[in-house]
Amino acid sequence: MATTPDEVDASATTTDVANAEIENRKKMIAACRILAAEGHSDNLAGQFTVRSTTNPNHFLTLPLGLLFGEVTESDICVINDELELVVGDRPVNPAVRFHLWIYRARPEVCCIVHTHAPYTAALSMAGRPLVVAHMDTAMFHEDCAYLSKWPGVPFGDDEGRIISECIGSRRSILLANHGYITTGTCVEEATYLAVFFERAAKMQLLVESMGEIQRIEPDLAREAHDFLLSPDVVAKTFGAWARKTSTT
Fold first, then answer.
1. Which residue has the higher pLDDT, 153 or 34?
2. Strand, helix or coil at 112?
3. What is the pTM of this model?
């Protein structure tokens, strides 16, 4: 029996979705290597999640107990939106629960990164939001929320609700007395923001130790924000970092 055009299209779509899932797994491991090289993985507090391409209510994540720099594709687990294991036999970080709240509220979000990178953690203790005052940090201009009071270890639904409401439609958030969260429509974008968040925190702390921060014009900051978050810039930057970490 001849194959109809609809059947061909359905088969192609299924193959594309499966291939995208495989590609996301590879990107996830590359991203973890990048974050480890940037100093985001000195303890077990970080989490990395990716929305599954085969089921939007399933999420790729890592088992509790592994640092970003040591994970492999075989370590990746799959959970559902109730934090129940779908694939894998090792427990995942229970703090991933707050990721699920963000995913539910933001269907465009396909990846979330959270760590306690040292400079971000230090900034989170200062009681001040992230200040955008340099071209290299302009991707956070009007796109970074600030949770001014720590709600406690984010194991429960209350913490997830508070965090998801505070981040709103922004891509990133600084959590007081805690760390950062970055989101993205792809693995590359969330990772890109995570790396630059820590660099932005480091720059801010350095400048504040010397004097007053000189802010940049909002219109110029918006222009730089859009340029730095263009898909081509994000993809090429992620690719360069991935190549660098694969050779070290």
1. 34
2. strand
3. 0.92
Other CB atoms within a 10 A radius of the CB of residue 32 amount to 27
135 class by beta-carbon count within 10 Å (0-12 exposed, 13-18 middle, 19+ buried): middle
Contact call for residues 177 and 151 (beta carbons, < 8 A): no
User: Maximum distance among all alpha carbons in the chain?
Assistant: 77
Q: pLDDT tens digit string along 107-160?
A: 999 999 999 999 999 999 999 999 999 999 999 999 999 999 998 887 889 999
**Cα Rg of the chain (Å, integer):** 19
Give CATH for domain 16-242.
Answer: 3.40.225.10
**Both tokens assigned to 72:** 């492999």
| Position 4 confidence tier, pLDDT thresholds 50, 70, 90 | very low
Exposure of 130 in the CB half-sphere (CA atoms within 13 A): 31
> What distance in Å separates the CA atoms of residue 90 and residue 93, rounded to the nearest whole number?
10
Question: What are the boundaries of each domain within the chain?
Answer: 16-242
CA atoms of 204 and 101, how far apart (whole Å): 30
Residue found by looking up tokens 């997830």 in the block: 160
> What is the C-alpha separation between 146 and 149, in angstroms, rounded?
9
* Measured torsion, CA atoms of residues 229, 231, 234, 235, in degrees rounded to the nearest 10: 180
CA dist 124 and 122 (Å) reads: 5
Q: List beta partners, residue 119.
A: none
Are 83 and 92 in contact by the 8 Å Cβ rule? The answer is yes
Q: Could you tell me where the beta strands, DSSP code E, fall in 134-176? A: 144-147, 172-175
CA dist., res. 30 & res. 120, Å (int) = 22
